[in-house]
Queue: 2 jobs
Job 1
Amino acid sequence: MKILLLGSGGREHTFAWKISQSPHCGQLYIAPGNAGTAAVGVNVDMQPNDFEAVGKFVIGQAIDMVVVGPEEPLVRGIYDYLKAQPGLEKLRVIGPSQTGAQLEGSKAFAKRFMMERDIPTAAYAEFTADQLEDGLAYIDQQPPPIVLKADGLAAGKGVLICSSAEEAKAEFRAMLSGKFGQASSRVVVEEFLDGIEFSVFVITDGKKYKLFPIAKDYKRIGEGDTGLNTGGMGAVSPVTFVDSQLMAKVENWIISPTITGLQELNAPYVGFIFFGLIRVGNTPYVIEYNCRMGDPETEAVLPRLENDLVELMMALDDGNLSEIEIKIGQEAAATVILVSGGYPGDYEKGKTITGIDEVEGSIVFHAGTRQEGDKIVTNGGRVLALTSYGADFHEALARSMSNAEKIRYEGKYYRRDIGFDL
Ligand code: AMP
Ligand code: GLY
């Protein structure tokens, strides 16, 4: 089978690594990929949001399956675009339709979806610019902290947690005046939930689903979860506090009604759902849905999955997902992300990376890297992901840490405390 994977981060290198292990994979293309994906497939100079180019490539190369890594092409409707091309009706597209992707593409849509189905989530209200006064009055009635969310995709920056009503009202005005462009033309005002977060992933054909390993990511730049939010500084899997009782609630109260709800939308959903959850007391609540796998969670989750991932993805179209048993390795996995100095603020690219060949006992997944002649250079904020196995996450983390020291490039930074709160 010929497979095209869209994306260029650590998540995509992990997908490429896993897909290339499958006997079903004859040829793997990654667009645009990075220096790591080039080692397990063929990089194609093409942007995932350039639907026309992707469609031409799929037809020209007789691709059988397209796997969509990031959310943006999904929210923009790449599933529907590809399926509508003459001759591509049977193409396997792994990722939801545009309507299904609204779970991530519109926070207001996701909140309404959950409220209508009694899926546990924070209380909220939504406002547009012509409801400014109503919104300000609503904020005044809420106890701080107050959570504001841009409705649309805002590159991970659209959530603000405000410590007072004054701050929230100022930010609310700014958002409705275009702080995040069109994405904040509608704002969700939400109750703050105090608890501990974790990430649950399913692969689904829109009717049946299978659970992937549970993970937890660490989003803040600083140790002890301090400082600015990033794309993610590390992840562990499994998550020690997530026991079978909590998971039973997650499945019964959250996952099942979500899958049923998707069927009511009458929109194809063939791919992954990422449930961003928070445990408050003993109750799981949904913080957010994502219509794709998480990054860096994928780097800790897929290495624990013993199944053939291509076979699982084929099952989505073939209708035999329920016949496949998910096999998860006993060992824990821990991922540490090495980033560029200055990230998530301004940082420089093009720094030569050395020491990758000295790594022992960890898998190196590339994120922001680029091949330049015979050198590998930095090409993004998140540069490399080091994933290790261990009897528990402490052991796995120790391996990633010792290998993180061996990698060298100017400005290298990583958190040494992944899993500190477990
Ligand atoms: P998101 O962009 O939706 O992933 O939100 C970013 C982060 O904001 C989440 O990972 C949470 O840490 C935090 N957050 C979002 N909504 C809430 C909420 N209602 N209560 C507490 N924290 C929240
Ligand atoms: N790890 C969070 C995300 O992928 O959005």
Note: The pocket of adenosine monophosphate (ligand 1) is lined by residues 122, 147, 156, 159, 190, 192-193, 197, 219, 276, 287-288 (CB under 6 Å).
Job 2
Amino acid sequence: MSSPRKKPEELRSYRWYGVNDLRSFGHRSRTAQMGYHSSEYMGKPVIAVLNTWSEINSCHTHFKQRVEEVKRGIWAAGGFPVEMPVSTLAEPFQKPTTMLYRNLLAMETEEVLKSYPFDGCVLMGGCDKTTPGLLMGAISMNLPAIYLPAGPMLRGNWNGRTLGSGSDTWKYWAELRAGKITEDEWKGIESGIARSPGHCMTMGTASTMTSAAESLGLTLPGFSSIPAADSRHAQFAALTGQRIVEMVWTDQKLSDILTAKSFDNAVTTVLAMSGSTNAIVHLVAVARRAGINLTTARFDELARITPVLGNIRPAGQYLMEDFYYAGGLRALLVELGELIDGTQMTVNGQTLGENIAGAEIYNDDVIRTRANPLVARDGLAVLTGNLAPDGAVIKPAAMEQHLRKHRGPAVVFKDYSDMAARIDSDDLDVTADSVIVLQHAGPVGAPGMPEWGQLPIPQKLLKEGVRDMLRISDARMSGTSYGACVLHVAPESFVGGPLALVKDGDIVELDVDARRLHLAVSDEELAARKAAWVPPKRPFERGFGVMHQMHVTQANKGCDFDFLETPSTCGSQESAQGQAHSAQGAQVTSSKPSTEPEIH
Ligand code: FES
């Protein structure tokens, strides 16, 4: 646990400000240049407020104000706040995918914290990849840190109907393509579906990861459920600023909070809320930064005993605003009982159990009781088989149940462009029993493993009334999406995984209950296809992308860069293809935790 209270001269920032030499003269004179008297910062914790605000991040528009509230709290507690802008990762706008840049935010977070005179930090994120990116970097630096979740936006509204981010976009897009709604109605949806600050209010990646951050013990209790527009969100921002100052004095670091059990709590939370499949990739990566070997198999183990209690779209009916009014995450965690380990420590210095004590469910349709779950178990399922030696993922709660056990012929698209060009073609040989397969959509190939995994249903099937069919790719899928979509196939096709070998007409077999994904093609035939397979040209020739394609790990390892993982986490099993991919990069297998810079 935390150490005895620090003395001012033991602060990390003292090395910049407190010593009497030429360099510290420079630091003090330049701080004076910014208008601060030495009495405002000398001997006080210097707190970085890492802000992912930008003018293009629609989910973080309130962060310009929230950062002032955080700073107010830091000042009030006797700290010295320093706002630092970091990569914004605006999900709707950044192409090809924010996932390509999650590790860039993680690197930036670690390097900013390391290279400036910071004693602790507040991490301001929420829009999908910002939560894992900030946490990964902060864990590697391991200063006292606290997370400020952006909070969900208010319910969408259109013509008297409630709209959910993403989920209703896909739903009404399908209706438009099927000719069931007009262009004017589609425009009305466009203006009403996102009508306040905050992240997506469905159980997408943002709500999933901010809830997971709270279960990990990294936010003030109850914070992740508060809508961004609620005045209590602003109050919690100020309290977060106050708290980080105390965390610095007691030297309460992330390594004092994160354990294998706290990650189990986070996984259980994700499962109980029918959270985004993206959480698997992100939590694995976050855990591996903390030196904890969280595996996809652990997700599957916990899924078999965890009921889905959060009745939130896309798997359920309601939105995060309803979830907050129904009691929020604290109430859900109480209901999970012994499935949550309440002894785990959190950022406010109390255990998770102490933080959730007394929380109540106020609407047991929104937060179901264990006696009446939305789904009894299997919020997520991890599949393996000859088509996915290192695993694949499906979300059984968000698919048509007749597809849980399915067998059908593959219709293969070699990449996204091929799919876009042919999927709606009248002469595409496809039926409702077909299995749509998309290749080259993984971490290296796409690149960045975009959220393409909710592959479109061919228009001619939509017109016949088909709304779900089995679809398989090595992509991810937005947490706001739904359908019988097998995702995260590892190793990916681009590096020679078996998905690269599938041909039109091959029979694909899915059995969710048996956790099996099988290609009914003989081993000999697959070996012959593999021998004839030619590695495709890598997508990047310059810039950050080159680093990405050389060092990104496969989905089952979290898609971190191999040289940024904390040692001791490695050692989980992977297939020959996965190992072969690692060997293609200039792999560094012995990364070290962040070290302090020399100050000259
Ligand atoms: Fe930011 Fe969905 S677009 S969370």
Note: The mean pLDDT is 94.
